[in-house]
Amino acid sequence: LNNRVNLVHGNALDLPFEDNSFDRAYMLHVGMNIEDKEKLFTEINRVLKPGGVFGVYDVMQIQPGEMTYPVPWASEQEICKLASPRQYKEALKAAGFDVVTEANQKESAMEFFKNMRAKMEADGPPPLGLHTLMRASTPVRIQNMVQNIAAGTISPVEIISRALG
Fold first, then answer.
1. β-bridge partners, 97
2. d(CA 55, CA 159)
3. What's the CA dihedral at 49, 30, 130, 106 to 10 degrees?
4. How far apart are CA 29 and CA 95, in angstroms?
5. Which of 36, 38, 153, 50 is nearest to 106 (CA)?
6. What is the full DSSP assignment across 37-84?
7. Is there a contact between 134 and 74 (Cβ–Cβ < 8 Å)?
8. Contact 164, 93 (CB under 8 A)
9. Cα-only R_g, the chain
10. pTM above 0.85, yes or no
11. How far is residue 161's CA from residue 95's CA, in Å, rounded to a whole number?
């Protein structure tokens, strides 16, 4: 894939690309780490062509409540930048996007973690995975995330939007 993929290191709030560079973009588990969602989405809109499609798949705050920490993206509440789907959609609209669809992925997430647990019990950890990043804290971080999703406090949410132009 070397001739088809170009990896670029950058800052999501100041992308190293020209305006109108891309037809499509996606963000996977990023927003939970960035407080200023409107600035983030404005920057993504800048690099998308008018009419470009932008997909978000992030863990979001579904209802008020205390979360159990640590979770995969944050060891404590002070560094966790969760927002609600409503806040995401407001930030997307303010950044020049038209929100097309929104889907709460709670059920698929619970199924994913159930299958992951069964596979881990049967085969042990894979060579590459979250455990290579989180090390010894992996089990408690995953357990807390599943607990928070099951409680309805958080959930992965998919939002598809289109850049207005």
1. 163
2. 6
3. -100
4. 19
5. 153
6. HHHHHHHHHHHEEEEEEEEEEEEEE-S--PPPS-BTTBSSGGG-----
7. no
8. no
9. 17
10. yes
11. 11
Residue 150: what residue type?
A
- Please report which helix (H) or strand (E) contains residue 91, including its range: helix 85-94
Q: How far apart are CA 137 and CA 81, in angstroms?
A: 20
Residue with tokens 């409503």: 86
Q: Parallel, antiparallel, or unpaired for β 154-163 and 97-104?
A: antiparallel
Q: Which of 8, 31, 37, 29 minimizes the C-alpha distance to 133?
A: 29
| Measured distance CA(40)–CA(158) in Å, rounded | 17
Domains of the chain by residue range? 22-163
Per-residue pLDDT of the chain (165 residues; tens, 9 = 90+): 889 999 999 999 999 999 999 999 999 999 999 999 999 999 999 999 999 999 999 999 999 999 999 999 999 999 999 999 999 999 999 999 999 999 999 999 999 999 988 998 899 888 888 888 888 999 999 999 999 999 999 999 999 999 997
Taking domain 22-163, whether its CATH number is 3.30.470.30 is answered by: no
The encoded tokens of residue 40 equal 């983030």
